[in-house]
Amino acid sequence: MLRGIGVPVQRHYSPFLRRSNSFPPYLLICKSTMSETPKPVLPSFVSLPDDDKTAQNPTHSGYTFRLVSYNILAQAYVKSSYFPHSPSSCLKWKARSQAVLTYLKNFGADFICLQELDEYNSFYKNNLESVGYSSIYIQRTGNKRDGCGIFYKQSSAEMLLTEEIHYNDLVDQLDPSSLNLTKSEDDVANGINKLDISTDELTVKKKASKGDPNDPTVRLKRDCVGLLAAFKLSHPSSPLIVVANTHIYWDPDWADVKLAQAKYLLSRLSKFRELVLSRFNSMPSVIVVGDFNSTPGDKVYNYVVSHCSDTSNEVAPIELYSLYGSNGGEPEFTNCTPDFTATMPSEIQDDPRRGNIVQPASIKIQRGRFEKSFSDTPRNEASTTPK
């Protein structure tokens, strides 16, 4: 994530430190060495070994493209009290907006997927359009100002089909006779078979901004959103891909809501892929990106990759694999702040053993922040290939 973008403070503190009323040593170092707004530290890409790309496809011939995903931290949520490890000058919109834009342009990506995207119409849309990107955007419901966006190079892909996902729709799927179950799939399009909302498992504390957590109609209404988009790549073979971008609810105490959203996402995604197949007579590859607010081994992660897990009790409707997990393993951490250091998977691909599939060829690494990328040959990196 680009939280406090341009502030490479990871080397100055231990991830085990926590906030306190006094200034810990790493904050003093940060403030003394970064009193002025620094230039963004631009990432590099590391090519994967050829064996990792060709194991499932000895011929290794096909198209290449690059995709990146970031939670860029909506400016509406930027407060110095939330990010005491970041110099205040780096949190101001004028500095952050230009730093984020520099980052995004530097990637040279064919697809850019952003979460916590606000200032879309006033800043990002036109600025990225000026360097060749078209885009789609969905704003969160309620009075939320941010949302999710997919930007794509007009020279790299043609957008064929899109769908919006509003997770508040889960409320409409609750069966009035039993708040533990949703309606059947025959009654509700893209329905979920079961929703784990039993009241005896709820956190009973009330939070004013959420209403009564014992009421599932309140509990599920988190104003989270997602986007599904099908593209035809600019390649002689005209391959199709589906890109899904989403932001799952954040609160670790509401794991049941996270899981319900993940199930709804994959249910919709499975049907969207079939729709693309029926309309264009070609099965698309699938890439799912986003901020899942989850860590490897938790319920959301295990469900999403349930087809490759022996421990999952429920299998997802579409077979997906973690890009990192299937290419050398999950990193030690992807988020490193005084409050939270852990791995938060951000990108998932469909079954690498299935035909017509893309595989990662390079990975971006920057001082503890990890994102996966699909490279293209002109950048002197290994190609990524459909199989």
From TrEMBL:
SUPFAM superfamilies: DNase I-like. GO terms for molecular function: 3'-5'-RNA exonuclease activity. Gene3D superfamilies: Endonuclease/exonuclease/phosphatase. Residues 69-301 form the Endonuclease/exonuclease/phosphatase domain. Residues 375-387 have a biased composition (Polar residues). Residues 367-387 are annotated as: Disordered. Pfam families: Exo_endo_phos (PF03372). It comes from the Eukaryota. PANTHER family: CARBON CATABOLITE REPRESSOR PROTEIN 4 (PTHR12121), CARBON CATABOLITE REPRESSOR PROTEIN 4 HOMOLOG 4-RELATED (PTHR12121:SF68). This is Endonuclease/exonuclease/phosphatase domain-containing protein.
